[in-house]
Amino acid sequence: MKSWITYAEDSDFSIYNIPFGVFSIGDSAPRLASAIGDQLIDLRAVAKTGLFDSLNIDASVWDAPFLNDFIALGKETTNKVRLTLQKSLCDEGSMLKDNDSIFLDQSSVVMHLPVQIGDYTDFYSSIEHATNLGKLFRDPENALLPNWRHLPVGYHGRASSIIISGTNIHRPKGQQKPADSDPVFGPCKLLDFELEMGFIIGKDTPLGSNITTDKADDYIFGKVLFNDWSARDIQKWEYVPLGPFLGKNFASSVSPWVVTLEALAPFHVAGPEQTPSVLPYLQYEGERNIDINLQVIIQPEGGEENIVSESNFKYMYWNMAQQLAHHTVNGCNVKVGDMMASGTISGKDEKSYGSMLEISAAGKRSLTLKDGSERKFIKDQDTVIMRGYAQKNGMRVGFGEVKTKVLPAL
Question: Which stretches in the chain have pLDDT values below 50?
Fold first, then answer.
């Protein structure tokens, strides 16, 4: 495909992508958009041209402050919207061409949280990450807990504190337990990022039903980049016996553009061999992992960007279909806009570790940045940036970035 819109060869938002998001400009209310190159496509303005008339979509959908109503139209309709846009952006005679009301520079708008998130679940599905942590804190010879290879471990997180890229966070506070004293209260000393990806539920299910691995793609609308911030010292003290709480619920950051599962279809690859064989409800057919290059950058205040991790979503041991099948096998219902996060994505070597906990070996070694400063964990005024893209046979489909600055504790 070739569009009449000009964009850079390495643009995340090529004609093969056409993601969806929510924006505002000036004092206007948030509304729906897509993107190509560095241009934002105002979907309300597109609808007014009549391009979508055959799809019988109510005009109120384009003016909604979240994608939920659009997603709830179903994939038969949302896929047609995406494909109609693609076709029109390649057609030299398109009614969209030379229409100044449709295209805006992405740098001139404010992007918003793309979906209203009812529930959020965080998985723990990278075997490299789980193994690294097991070696650091448990038995190096038996790093994985007994259940890990049998089911996608996860926990229910806090949806209200999921924030859009560009939103600053304050260093969290809570209880910590120094080795030589009783618990103390104060700002987190071991603030960490977690390189993750999230997927967004695209279809409701009733309570008591379940989603099988072969049907999972019907229930996944698309994906975002996800930084699941972690206060490691708070987490270490509180997580036994019930798991993460204050160490995790203060913030998780997401990218603004939702890349559809259909845009990512060309980049599917085989996942790792699962040993021992999983139970029947977790078995699946086909290539269900996705080859998405991922990068984490630390940028000190006033300083240069420093790449600290380069990983890939293809490494995931448990894929999205298995995560969703496990999540619902007991009858748990899901709703449009629910978000599921992958868990930290680590690769095969130290350059691909997805957290500072792994990079610094739990604080035993330092990472030196370009300005000569050192990091074991994230400092105040640091900005953490995550980027991701898939690329193959001249096609590039990317996510933009999720970017968050850490301010001092309040």
Answer: none
Determine whether domain 120-407 maps to CATH 3.10.180.10.
no
What phi and psi values does residue 279 have, to the nearest 5 degrees?
A: -65, 155
Per-domain residue ranges of the chain = 21-111, 120-407
Task: Give me the pLDDT at residue 161, please.
Answer: 98
**Nearest CA among 177, 319, 162, 318 for reference residue 238:** 177
Catalytic machinery residues: 129
Record the pTM.
Answer: 0.97
State residue 37's pLDDT score: 98
Q: Which option is the CATH number for 21-111: 2.30.30.230, 1.20.1290.10, 1.10.1200.10, 3.30.70.20? A: 2.30.30.230
**Tokens describing residue 341:** 């996060």
Query: What is the C-alpha to C-alpha distance for residues 225 and 245, in angstroms, rounded to an integer?
Result: 22
pLDDT of amino acid 392: 97
